[in-house]
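JOB MANIFEST
job_type = single_chain_structure
chain_count = 1
residues = 364
[input]
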Amino acid sequence: MSGEAVHVRAAPLDASAGQASRRDLGRRLLITLGPILISLALAGCVLLAVGVDPLAYYGFVVERGLLSPLGLQQTLTRMAPLLFIAAGLIVAFRAGMWNLGGDGQFLLGAVAAAATAPLLVQSLPGWLALLVAFLIATVVVVIWSLVPALLRAYQGVNEIITTLMMSFLGVSLANVLVKLVFLDPGTTVPQTRTLPVGDRLPRLFETTITSGLVFGLAAIVIVHLVMTRTAFGLKLRTVGANPRAAVHAGLNVPLLTVVVFAISAGLIGMGGAIDIIGIHGNVRADWNPAYGLAVIPVVFLARMNGFAAIGFVFLLSVLSIGGESAARRLGVPQHFTLVLVSIVLITLAIAEYLDHRFNQVRRT
């Protein structure tokens, strides 16, 4: 009898917990999808103000970035470097640190891969040459990240300032290296030597989609699991959330700070390397896709969740590929995609604030 009573009393509790979970899921979807829809409407008003039909613009974006077979393949290919950048940013942000030097780190990784891969394929098997170039690019960027890491760890210098400065220096240094040190003497356009198409990463399923997409997906999934399911991830989150508590817990905060920057920058550098050995094959002078700044809002939109970030990176890729096509057809600046992402970020912040205030009022 007592067992049956316990069972009867437990059932309503389980049902109540299930209903609460569904309500929470619905609330999270509302404050995630709602800002996106509102942002599309606001961006549409901006397009109307400059004399562009927003429905036509969004139609071209969807058609080119999602519905067209070739456009979809380009969208999935564009995701490869963005996933590595998102993974690197998630590591830093979850550890409570700001790595805003993604553009410089990305370009240095790309230049390191572009400088080494064409030479390595001449003396090593193809797969080994790409692996070595990939690792060299990663090591270069990890070393580059030591400056802001050591300043934050041992001098308490704000990493927002140092990573932004290092990003500017990294972009400038990458261009100097392309124009002087790694310049291909056989071309009239300033660029590095070109990795032959046949020596680049293989394509997936006889399409134009680079296999770097698989590595990018693996990177962000591994990062998510490490940061949320392992003791090492807990240590990094503790350092970011409460450094004093981390010290009292016996954690080596300076060392973990350096490790966070190294992992974050290394992953972003991998994104630059994968973009070269899988897609472009070389780096031209003054090339800077500014992926780092574009992915930062995406990571916050995903609330630093790796699995959610995959979906938002896909959305950014659709907007990027489709936006380029829409810009050519309708005369809209290509940077309008960043404007749209910025509007989404602002509306999301407002939605989060209102949700937080609502929860406070409800508790009182």
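[summary]
Residues 84-307 form one domain.
The radius of gyration is 23 Å.
exit_status = 0
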